[in-house]
Amino acid sequence: MPDPTLSGNTADEQDLVRSAREGSHDAFRSLVERHMKRAYNVAFSFVNNHQGAEEVTQDAFVRAYEAIGSFRGDAEFSTWLHRIVMNLSLNKIRQSRSERARRAEGSPDDLSTTDGSPVPGDDVARHIERALHELPTMQRATVILRHMDGLSTRQVSGILRCSEGTVKTHLYRGLAKLRKKLEYLRDGGI
User: Fold this and answer.
1) Do 37 and 75 fall within a single domain?
2) pLDDT digit string (tens) for 176-190?
3) Is the domain of 126 the same as that of 98?
4) What is the DSSP letter of 73?
5) Is 118 helix (H, G, I), strand (E, B) or coil?
6) Are 16 and 10 in contact (CB under 8 A)?
7) For the chain, what is the domain count?
8) For the chain, how big is the Rg over CA atoms in Å?
9) CATH number for the domain that contains residue 54
10) pLDDT in tens, 23-77
11) Same structural domain for residues 97 and 10?
12) Which helix (H) or strand (E) holds 141?
């Protein structure tokens, strides 16, 4: 049975959204409490650091608060919020890439030594995270939302605003690329 705190289908949540749209701060606070952990987890899975995930999550709730009056309810509140979090996360990633590009070239990668060999003590999870963040944006988003966050294909299609078939294609291609990128782990590369 789905967790009611994560589902936008409950009558209680619909009442909270309606009250928040009418200006109830308490209702919006309840929505924040229900969705804070999931929103943070989605943000963290994209930006890959605590501070960035907190910033994205806070910004997402501020934007949701400012726009709740125009929320039509065509999608579940959670889907609408996930879309906001994902868009802000992608913006944060672009901003980080721009900042890294401005830094001096030639600094060693944080996952390898200057000769390219793995840093001693790295664990498999860091290699998986790195491979995941090397995927194209839509493939990474689909893999994260579908497999790491456990959302259905339908929910992912709502968040990414594409068909379920497109979600399945991105998922298939993303997982295939991850397997290929991580083959060296199976072969004893670390």
Assistant:
1) yes
2) 998 898 887 776 655
3) no
4) -
5) strand
6) no
7) 2
8) 19
9) 1.10.1740.10
10) 999 999 999 999 999 999 888 888 888 999 999 999 999 999 999 988 888 888 9
11) yes
12) helix 137-143
